[in-house]
Each structure stands twice: as structure tokens, then as C-alpha cells.
Amino acid sequence: MLDRYLLRYFLGVVDQGNFSRAAAACNVSQPTLSVGIAKLERTLGQPLFVRSNQRVELTEAGTRFLVHARRIEREFNVVMQSMGASADLPTLRLGVLASIPGETIAAGIAAARPAEAYRFELLFGTERELAGHLAKGRIDLALTLVDRGAGRFAERRVTTEGYALALAADHPLADTPEIAAEALANETMIVRRHCEALSETSRFFTERGVRPHFALRSTNDDRVLQFVAAGLGLTVMPACYRHPGIRRPRLAGFAATRTLGWVAGDAMEHLLATPIALMTSIERGLRA
Q1: Which SUPFAM superfamilies match (predicted)?
Q2: Parallel, antiparallel, or unpaired for β 91-97 and 141-145?
Q3: From residue 122, how far is each of 31, 88, 93, 277, 281 by CA, in Å?
Q4: Cα pseudo-dihedral 280, 276, 113, 29, rounded to 10
Q5: Residue 97 · residue 125 · CB < 8 Å
Q6: How far apart are CA 191 and CA 15, in angstroms?
Q7: Through-space distance between the first and last CA atoms of the chain, rounded to whole angstroms
Q8: Helices 30-44, 4-16: crossing angle, 10 deg rounding
Q9: Tens digit of pLDDT for each residue in 8-43?
Q10: Dist CA 186 CA 13 (whole Å)
């Protein structure tokens, strides 16, 4: 029979990246945790970790066992919560760039169920707001823009994407694969005021003599998509956005891109090397 505390020690090492941080997270001494891991390995009859001075890595057996350990821990926490007991869960506060589709984050959460393993908190904000929250310790991890040259926090790149037009499916240009800026000179547009490429987009149109009328200025992408689909105007958005009733043709000559990735505070840097299920679920959605 496996004691739950041994599972917690094992998951602590996986999540924290080494024995000393895992011991602190589990509120035990490092020798106590090491003895527990050794007991777990003897019980299972196989080594679970490859230890070195620099890092701790899972063995093949450890990787297989991790799947079962995560499931057992989740089910235990569900039982505890359903019985009204207070499970001793670690805190995970995630910040997400506001210009990342909410449905991608929601799908990742639905798949990983972070609230079963953590006291989970979710916050949306701009790149600057998220950096400030990380610096002040208000969030542990952020999904935001990376490769910006700041070097302030540890980063892990996930994906790079471009931008494209978004226009109503019944627009006369909707089925055109690529549209020149000049062809939009008489179009009404919607401004995404929180867009990280806003100044670059404005300059691109202005240099080509396009100065449109703006029917809506918004920081809410769901609202922007709704009104684009309604035919109020068109806009420029990251390529990852999809919505019923909208087409996404390319904007000819517009080469702007953005790179999204994880940014971690000091206490969570280990997650960049050994991402948890929530991170991998969201990454799959971003790369789809």
C-alpha cells in the first residue's frame, strides 16, 4: 500500500525540480523527504529519479508512475473537497496576456483541472501589468510575450505567430487569401486598443495612405470579434483567433509577429524546465 505522503513527496520533487525545494514545499526536512522517496522506490521496486548535482530527472519508470500519481492525487483532493475537508494544496497564481484567446486558456483548464491540485487563481492583464505582478509576487507564472530583450525574468518560449485581418464572412473580400492595405482605404475599422502591435499596425496603414474611420475602440477581443462578425468593421488580430462568421485573410506585406511563452518568478522557475499539466495543455491549444 502506498501512503499518500509518499506521493506528495514524489510530486513535490517533480514540481519543484529538486529535493531541497520539494522538502520546503512539503514542510519537511530534506533528509526526511529523501528517506520517503527511497521508501517509495523500494516499494515500487524501481528507481524514479536520476540524481545529479545540477538537477533531478525522472527515469522511465518515474515518468510512467507520474501519470498515476497525478491521477491519485487529483482524485484524493476531489474526495476531500466533496466531503468538506480542507485539502492542503499549494497555491498557483497564473497571469495571462489579455490578447490571448480566452477559449484557449479555458480549454487548457478544462483538460488539466488545476483547481484539483492547487489553490488556483487566474488573472488577465497587459504585458506591463503581468510583469509588475510578477515583480511584486502577486502571480507565480505568466503566459505573455517573450523574447523582448528585457531579461528580467526566466522565460520559456512556446510559439511565434503573425497577424491577419479579421472581417465578416459576408464581406466582399472575405474569400480573398491576401488583401493589400490600399484595398481597405474606404473600409471602416475596429481598433483593438490593447494590441501589442497597435503602433506598428497604425504606421503600416498610414504609410500606405490608409486613414480609415474607426467605428469601435475596445480592449475586449470577444466584443471585437462579435462586432466584426456583425459587419461593423474589420480589424487586425493575432492569427490564432477564430470566430463563427469571420474570415482571416492575410494583410499583404505586414510582417509583424509575436512570440508567446511562459515567464516565471524565482520560486517557479523550475516549471519552465518541467512544465505541469496545465502548461502543456495550454501549449497544445496555442500550437493547434
Answers
A1: Periplasmic binding protein-like II, Winged helix' DNA-binding domain
A2: parallel
A3: 35, 19, 6, 16, 15
A4: 180
A5: yes
A6: 41
A7: 41
A8: 110
A9: 889 888 887 788 878 877 878 888 889 999 999 999
A10: 60
C-alpha cell at 70: 497525478
CA–CA gap between residue 18 and residue 263 (Å, rounded)? 19
| pTM across the whole model | 0.69
Strand ranges for the chain from DSSP E: 49-51, 56-58, 91-97, 119-125, 141-145, 154-168, 178-179, 188-192, 213-218, 235-238, 246-247, 250-251, 257-264
Burial class (CB in 10 A: 0-12, 13-18, 19+), 131: buried
Whether pLDDT at 115 is above 90: no
pLDDT of residue 210: 95
Tell which wins on pLDDT, 54 or 60. Answer: 60
Closest C-alpha among 14, 4, 9, 12 to residue 50: 14
pLDDT of residue 54: 65
What the chain holds in terms of domains, given with CATH numbers, is 4-82 (1.10.10.10), 91-159+259-287 (3.40.190.10), 160-257 (3.40.190.290)
Question: Which amino acid is residue 104, in one-letter code?
Answer: T
